[in-house]
Design a protein that fits this description.
By secondary structure, the chain is α+β, with helices and mostly antiparallel strands. The protein is 45% helix and 16% strand. It folds into 2 domains: 3-131, no CATH class; 142-295, no CATH class. It is built from 12 helices and 10 strands. Helix 2 runs parallel beside helix 9 (219-239) and helix 7 (184-198) packs across helix 9 (219-239). The two termini are 40 Å apart.
C-alpha cells in the first residue's frame, strides 16, 4: 500500500469520527484514562507517535496489541473469523540512485501492519494482559507535571488578561488567571495546549509552525494547532486532567474539512504531538507501558 493511501486511511478514520458527531480528541483522552497508553504485548513496549491516537480511536477493553504471529508466539491466537480493524504505521527508508546525477537519495515511505487487540480479538492472552497492568501509583498533581516542564525549560509563565497564547520570540506562555476558568481542569487543559506549542521552537523540537512565520489561518498555523490539540488531550490524560470538551460542531467540522484537504496531516500531526507530550513529561520515546502509565491514577 502506498504512503498516500495509508495517510488517507488514517485521515478517513479521524474525519468519520468527527462527521458522526464524535470528538476524536475526547476519544483519545478517554482511551488513555480507561486503559493507559497503547502498547505491544509481545515487546512490552509502548507505541509512540502516530500510532497512539490511531489505536486510541478503537473501541476496545484494553490497550494491549499484538500482530497475528505475536499472538501465536505468546501462546494464544487471533479468534477465528476476526478481521483486523486496526493498523500501526511506521516509516521505512529506501535508498535510490538518481539516474541523472548518480547521487544516492533516501526516500521515506509509510508501511502499515495489522494488529489485534489482546482481549477483544484474541484468546489465550488474558493472563498476560493482567500481568502488564501497572502497579497502583498515586497520580501526579497536574500542576506539578506541567510546572516541572516550565521550570526545567526556563519558560516564562504569566497570568492576567483574557487570552491564552504562546509567544515564541520570548518563550512565554500567557494565561488568564485560574479563577477565570470554570474549573481547575479547564485551566490545566488550556495550559497544556499552550505548552505543547512551546515544544516546537528551534531549541526544542523545531516544528515549522513555530520556527517559520505562520499567519492566522495559514496551513502552518492550522497544522500546529492540530499538533497542540492531539498533544494536549494525551498529555492531560496522562496527568489526570479532563479538558473542556465543549467544542462547537462548527469547530470540529472545520477540522474535518482541513484534514480532508490535507490527507497527510493526521499522520504527521499526531506523530509530532506524541513527541511533544514525551518532551513535556520527560519520557523517552521507547518507554515501557509501566513507565508511561505512572502518570495515570
Amino acid at each position: 500500500m502506498k504512503t498516500k493511501e495509508i495517510q488517507e486511511q488514517v485521515t478517513n478514520k479521524l474525519t468519520s469520527l468527527i462527521d458522526s458527531g464524535t470528538n476524536p480528541f475526547q476519544q483519545c483522552w478517554k482511551g488513555v484514562r480507561e486503559n493507559g497508553l497503547p502498547y505491544n504485548l509481545k515487546r512490552k513496549e509502548a507505541y509512540k507517535g502516530t500510532n497512539v491516537p490511531i489505536l486510541l480511536m478503537q473501541d476496545v477493553p484494553c490497550n494491549a496489541w499484538v500482530s497475528y504471529k505475536e499472538a501465536q508466539a505468546l501462546g494464544g491466537h487471533v479468534k477465528s473469523g476476526t478481521t483486523a480493524t486496526a493498523y500501526v504505521v511506521f516509516w521505512k527508508f529506501l535508498k535510490k540512485k538518481d539516474k541523472k546525477t548518480g547521487e544516492e537519495k533516501t526516500i521515506p515511505f509509510l508501511k502499515r501492519s495489522a494488529v489485534f487487540n489482546a482481549l477483544r480479538d484474541c484468546e489465550g492472552l488474558e493472563h498476560l494482559v493482567e500481568g502488564m497492568k501497572p502497579e497502583e501509583i498515586l497520580p501526579s498533581e497536574p500542576e506539578t507535571a506541567l510546572q516541572d516542564y516550565v521550570d526545567r525549560e526556563g519558560i516564562t509563565l504569566c497570568h492576567g488578561g483574557n487570552r491564552a497564547y504562546y509567544q515564541p520570540s520570548k518563550d512565554l506562555v500567557q494565561m488568564p488567571h485560574e479563577q477565570a476558568f470554570f474549573s481547575r481542569d479547564q485551566y490545566q487543559g488550556v495550559l497544556a495546549h499552550e505548552l505543547i506549542h512551546s515544544t516546537g521552537i528551534e531549541k526544542r523540537l523545531n516544528r515549522k509552525g513555530l520556527t517559520e512565520k505562520a499567519a492566522f489561518g495559514s496551513a502552518n498555523y492550522a497544522f500546529e494547532e492540530l499538533v497542540a490539540e492531539f498533544g494536549a488531550c494525551i498529555t492531560c490524560a496522562m496527568i489526570g486532567v479532563e479538558p473542556d470538551w465543549d467544542n462547537s460542531a462548527a469547530y470540529l467540522e472545520g477540522w474535518s474539512s482541513k484534514l480532508k484537504e490535507n490527507p497527510s496531516w493526521a499522520v504527521s500531526a499526531s506523530g509530532q504531538a506524541g513527541k511533544a507530550t514525551n518532551f513535556i513529561l520527560g519520557i523517552d520515546g521507547g518507554a515501557s507501558p509501566q513507565t508511561l502509565n505512572q502518570f495515570n491514577p
